């Protein structure tokens, strides 16, 4: 299944825009690449955003065989990934993985994932979110997790925040954290301590090279989970029960139907939005396509979502 997301990943913090987009057949949600409240310092390989923005397709039997470690709310877990950790080598996924089960009956979740940089080495994480039935619901590729400089109580790290809202009726949702062949070929550019210190005290910044952390199949993660009430999070799971084999699209943001009771959009207007969505995707502007989709459905378009999904699938 092709989904070339370009510079697309899952984030639910789009200003006044409901990022309601899903893949009806697989339940995969796509979203914007901007990590919440993070600033990227240093440079990364610009190709990684494209080469590693493919949602993995993992057979259900493989997912069912994994050991899903329960995670408590309002706690921080430290996870050491090494040769004795669970391993997954499927497609582009390589090396040690972490698999977590989170409670889905305690409201919206804010999850902060850090991958610590030690000895100029880092585990570059990707996160696949699955609903209670182990259906893919959201995807955060590695370029979502940005380099952060060390602070008083923290070290160099890759960091990203996930905001998820499980729909009613679920007991658990799941996080699969892994790295890929593309990540292993990349590296993280850090900031030299002398530069950081000089900038902090107002001195002239020395002209010295920055260290580079190579990406590895092992590493150290920290995972902090807390409940939160902010709107606009990613909905994980189905809202309405269904008797059909094909799952309903995963809803992102508002749980209210956007077009069921809306006045039908005029044919010319509907055609305009569909063509605009196709054009935006063909030019790699997924954010613009998402906004067009949201606006079209607000006006009552019954075909905008299908146009978005089919265009993403075709890779055009």
TrEMBL record:
It holds the Pfam family MalM. Coiled coil: none annotated. Residues 1-24 form the signal peptide. Transmembrane segments: none annotated. The keyword Signal applies. One of its GO terms (cellular component) is periplasmic space. InterPro entries: MalM (IPR010794). Keywords: Signal. GO terms for biological process: carbohydrate transport. This is Maltose operon periplasmic protein. It comes from Xenorhabdus poinarii G6.
């Amino acid at each position: 299944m092709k989904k070339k997301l370009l510079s697309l990943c899952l984030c639910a913090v789009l200003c006044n825009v409901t990022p309601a987009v899903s893949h009806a057949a697989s339940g995969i949600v796509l979203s914007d690449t901007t990590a919440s409240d993070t600033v990227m310092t240093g440079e990364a390989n610009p190709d990684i955003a494209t080469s590693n923005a493919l949602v993995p397709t993992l057979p259900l039997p493989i997912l069912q065989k994994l050991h899903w470690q329960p995670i408590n709310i309002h706690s921080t877990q430290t996870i050491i990934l090494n040769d004795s950790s669970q391993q997954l080598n499927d497609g582009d996924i390589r090396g040690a993985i972490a698999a977590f089960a989170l409670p889905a009956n305690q409201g919206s979740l804010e999850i902060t994932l850090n991958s610590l940089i030690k000895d100029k080495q880092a585990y570059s994480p990707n996160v696949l979110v699955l609903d209670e039935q182990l259906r893919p619901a959201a995807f955060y590729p590695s370029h979502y997790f940005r380099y952060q400089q060390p602070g008083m109580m923290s070290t160099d790290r890759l960091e990203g925040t996930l905001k998820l809202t499980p729909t009613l009726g679920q007991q658990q949702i799941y996080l699969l954290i892994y790295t890929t062949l593309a990540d292993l070929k990349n590296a993280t550019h850090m900031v030299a301590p002398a530069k950081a210190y000089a900038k902090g005290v107002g001195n002239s910044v020395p002209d010295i090279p920055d260290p580079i952390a190579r990406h590895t199949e092992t590493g150290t993660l920290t995972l902090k989970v807390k409940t939160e009430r902010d709107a606009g999070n990613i909905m994980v799971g189905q809202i309405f029960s269904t008797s059909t084999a094909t799952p309903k699209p995963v809803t992102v943001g508002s749980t209210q139907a956007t077009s069921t009771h809306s006045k039908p959009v005029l044919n010319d207007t509907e055609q305009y939005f569909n063509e605009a969505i196709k054009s935006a995707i063909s030019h790699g502007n997924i954010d613009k396509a998402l906004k067009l989709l949201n606006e079209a459905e607000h006006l009552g378009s019954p075909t905008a979502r299908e146009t978005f999904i089919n265009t993403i699938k075709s890779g055009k």
